[in-house]
Amino acid sequence: MEAIAQIIEAKREEKPLPEAPEHEQPAAVLDLMAALQESVSKVKASRGEGEGPAEVHELPRPNKAAPRKQPAKKAAAKKASGRRPRSA
């Protein structure tokens, strides 16, 4: 908050802005893909799964097509009420 107050005060008095302090060490950058691959390989190893490609199986073909449903019937029209509409 003190740095913000210094910037505001410098702008009010039309002085140059104070310099921002330099960071001594850059932040560590994580390689997300490497972390994900490592996590997946640990899980596979704990399950006893091999590192080779997965087995691919053919899907069975359906014997018959499903019967088509009939479209829904339309609702019957409402009967007119005994009242007459109001005139404008």
Describe this structure in words.
This protein is mainly alpha-helical. The protein is flat.
Question: Quick summary of this structure?
Answer:
The chain is mainly alpha-helical and 88 residues long.
Key descriptive features of the protein:
88 residues, mainly alpha
In terms of structural class, how would the helical and strand content be classed?
Answer: mainly alpha
Unreliable residue runs: none
Molecular shape: flat
N-to-C SSE string, H for helix and E for strand: HH
User: Could you tell me the radius of gyration in angstroms?
Assistant: 37 Å
State the helix count. Answer: 2
Beta strand %: under 5%
Number of strands: 0
Mean pLDDT: 79
Please summarize the sheet with the most strands.
none
End-to-end Cα distance, whole Å, is 67 Å
Give the topology, please.
Layout: H1 2-12, H2 32-47
